[in-house]
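Q: For a teaching session next week I want to show students how multiple molecules come together into a single three-dimensional assembly. I've collected the sequence lines for a complex. Could you give me the predicted structure tokens for the whole thing so I can convert them for display?
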Amino acid sequence: MQPEARFFLHPLTAAAVAGLMLLGGCSSPDSISRSGSDGSSASNVIVLGFDGLDYDLTRKLMEEGRMPNFSRLDAENPLAKLGTSAPPQSPVAWSDFITGMDAGGHGIFDFVHRDPKTMAPYLSTSRVVADPAAGEPFQLGECQVPTSGGEMELLRHGTPFWETLEEHGIETTILRMPANFPPSGTATRELSGMGTPDLLGTYGTFTFYTSELFFDDSDISGGKVVAAWPENGVVVGTLDGPPNPFVRKKEKAQAPFEVRTDPDEPVAKLVVGDEERILQVGEWSDWVPVALDLGTCGKLMMTPSLPAMARFYLKSLTPEFQLYVSPLNLDPMDPVMPISTPASYAADLAEGSGRYFTQGMPEDTKALEGKVLDRAQFLEQAHLSRDEMLVQYRQILADWKGGLMFYYMGTADQISHVLWDTLDPEHPRYDPVESPKFADAIPDAYVALDGMVGYTLEHMPPNTTLVVMSDHGFTSWRRAFNLNTWLWKNGYLAVRDAQSALTAKFFGAVAWDQTRAYGLGINGLYVNVVGREKKGSVPESERQQLMEEIRDKLLATLDPKTGLPAVTRVYLREETFSDGGYRDIGPDIIVGYAKGTRASSASSLGELSAEVFADNVDDWPGDHLMDHESVPGILLTNRPLPKPAPALRDLSGAILAVFGVETDVAAK
Amino acid sequence: MNLLNSALRVLFDLLLYPFQALPAAVGLLVVSALAAMGMLWVFKRTSNQERLEAVKRQIHAGLFEIRLFNDSFRRIWSAQLGILRNNVTYLRLSLVPMLFILPPLALVVAQLQFHYAYAAPAAGDQLVLTATLDEGWQDSGEVPVSASGKPQATLELPAGLVAETPSLWTPADRMLSWRLRVEQPGDHVLGIHIGDQQFSKDLAGSRPLQRRSPVKPGRSWVDQFIYPAEVPLPADGVLANVALDLAPAEVALPGWKVQEMAGVPAWMTVFFIFSIVFAYALRKRFGVVF
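A: Of course. Below is the structure for the complete assembly, covering every listed component.
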């Protein structure tokens, strides 16, 4: 059906437009721009969302002539800073963009939220909801029949701006949009992005098989290490999936695999089910389909296996066997969770341009931090993902019939996080021998995105507005600040025992009845309010005064090493966020750390350390979770937007205006 | 067997030659029509048409009986038994012509499989070449081995193909494998040298519709029956077979891209659907009852 036909036929659309006309907020339906089926008439918009592209670095590379396509656009419409969200975290920032509202409106304040009634943390963007009407599984000998599968729920609130366009008869194609899992279901075509879990339901859990007896796995947080030895040249292992829902005893769905090694050469054959790959040491496999066996009970339930896929990296055969296996991704040919709209679209994309990663963030920074992959290996993996996205994007652009298209690229962000020291010789992580070897990695990531912009300019239909934007900037993270330790040392947080406090996980040693405030997430600080928190100690009447007191003290805190303030701005909830219905689930205070300083990873998960400040020597030298004023993103267009877009929240409204849709997104 | 296969290879190469530049569905349409006509002709001459017609009438009568006397359990039960008995008779009467149809059909299917089941490798595609040694490969003493016992083999690749890995020896399977990459699609002959022995394997990739075989078989009758598309390996060689993992081909129909499903090649699905449709459409013209 043609877009214009849909527009006039849909009664809800007609009603919505009529309402807008009555309010005088919009023109007549005829004035709303529409895209022709060949993509050549009326208005089309392509938005390229580049996570973490920093304004200053982009400008520098443009001046060096390394981003000619950005420079070409800049000559027509100057590159602008795009204000990011408070706090400047990707799920928050993208939700600002999607809804045109701040966190008070869409309800995403951090990667992690907490339930004040239980103090349990949870991932902020989605959750599994069990069917309340579901009873106990039906027992059948060793097997069981689940009475309900549960559902994934998107926790981001508010109306996505593409939904408004769809209501006006404009087709939208929204690909890999962060904070959109499960997909909203309101675009013509959608593929979920950042926030999409792996098969285990995590943000990515790798497995490392090694024959090394004393492999140090103390730094591994997003994966597991499994012992594996060759016997007669063959290593036998299993890939572990989620618990088998069809058996009564606790048992995981598993897929056996073999690695058959050559006696003379550094080469091996990987056998997973019917799939075989030959890999040399130092090579990555393509996506290998994996069928996780659900046993006899699964066969009885007509579900013999769970489909998934993984990439294998043969790290070493001698003297030690080392095999990295990526997180088990949902197989786009047959995803077991909803990842696209319509449901068949994920498979259509895979048929068009090959299997592709479905996990939200495929670059395995956890494996790098855990020393399972080194920097070169990490970069290879990141480039594989990037190339996969570029191939997919070209296919989608070739098939695109106009309207709105959004495509997200996250590789520059992830590479910047783990390699920023290569651009900052003052960084504590900077190694004068090792770091310069990777000095081109981040610029190259930017250059690749410039190539994508150039390709788009060449191949997009005429009369298309191209919007290139990033959700936040980037900078060096040199100093780590343990907010919970600061609260402890300033008398706001109490512990039961000072010694055990330094080893306890997730507020394990905190004396809640004497604690007035605590930090959770990267920028969040919560007051321990009576009646709200499980063991609150601060009456609501004293909350405001306490927040102001903490704000003043934080702003006065100086880093003893640099003599500079650790915090440049402190944002009180009521002064910062609109009351869009979800303000109360967020932190009472957003801490705006000074550029170069960030909350320590330990603090963000409720752990204490001996010192408030420490050098950041982790494999995570770059970041952006500081004062949002100091890390703006970028905005670049091929023609002026009809409305100004100084910040992410304004951009969606400006895109609607390109189509002649004047809906006040924020009001919705 | 080799002579028969050689003749069939020539016959089908000639038969399908006009369709080389056309979509696979066009060739399958014609072949299905010819196959349907051939099967109708054989069926007519090898079956008892009068008996078949009579049995079919009996079955129809039983169905009418059920509709007419649907208030009588006894009559329904009796009619059902009659239908069942006549169905068995129908199957028995069909068995004889099927015995005549199936052997030539199997040979036809085997030939079509190697024209339509595998996609032509494109530039950039990776293929795994596997040479399986005979069970008694060590007995002859003709195969040089490394200190670890790995047979020493060298690969001779034409321009357009490159080996991305050294040979991989998996003793439990007696297999030597290489990963190849296609740089230039074309009709290639790959060479494998083991000691003084030389072997070859064809890889046809210059046109979409071509005879291409995933396996160069050994000399056994069964191997040659299953893989008739390529001249078998020499009987006195140390190799049992040579295989290439060719990707399955799709068949595009208007509005439907048929793919391999549950191990059934796409072309076979299309072939059987077309054949059945043609057989039904032409049965009266051929005067055949089935």
